Amino acid sequence: MIYTKIIIAVLLSIPLICANAQEITVLDEQGQPLANAVIEISHPLLRVTESPNKELYIVDQVDKQFVPQVLAIPQFSNVSFPNSDNIRHHVYSFSKTKPFELKLYAGKPKAPLTFDKSGVVVLGCNIHDSMVGYIYIASNRVFSISNDLGKVELSLPREVVKDGQILIWHPQQKLGVENLRSMNIQEVIDNQYRVTISTNPPSPRNTFEQLFNK
């Protein structure tokens, strides 16, 4: 998987750091597994640096949905937005992290977009208002998205455990879609590698504009 490659790259690029693979469980307030949560390990040793050899990430449009709905990428990455539907879409975002607009198109846009700021970008379609997607741009090189069982496996370098932070995000979090929650790594270890996120119930009626009260 793409995120496994990222973790491997971290270990190769920081040879002095010994890392332990740890499984973190993400739960909602009812103790149920929470999918599509992003967990990022934050520490100065793990900061992303711009590379000329950027991997291309994809957010497709299939059956009037963004696929994947949640994409996590390292800062400075390129993302392409192909349209696999037989209708045209008009993809855009007014998130402060990366405002952009891909006007009405079919097939593949001419060029990918570079996401050079860390944060969260909410995607919408100007034609199909119910289409909502998310791109999480990580400023650190160790991160992953929870699966349907709420599981995230990350390599925790021993040198960052003492003073490193875990950044936590979910699209339905009560904290707000563009905010990140931070915890000390030791807090997560003391809690048996479990993280709880307070979420709002998902609603199919939520639209791109409603997320920003527009």
Automatic annotation (TrEMBL):
<dbReference type="InterPro" id="IPR008972">
    <property type="entry name" value="Cupredoxin"/>
</dbReference>
<feature type="signal peptide">
    <location>
        <begin position="1"/>
        <end position="21"/>
    </location>
</feature>
<dbReference type="InterPro" id="IPR034242">
    <property type="entry name" value="MauL"/>
</dbReference>
<protein>
    <submittedName>
        <fullName>Methylamine utilization protein</fullName>
    </submittedName>
</protein>
<keyword id="KW-0732">Signal</keyword>
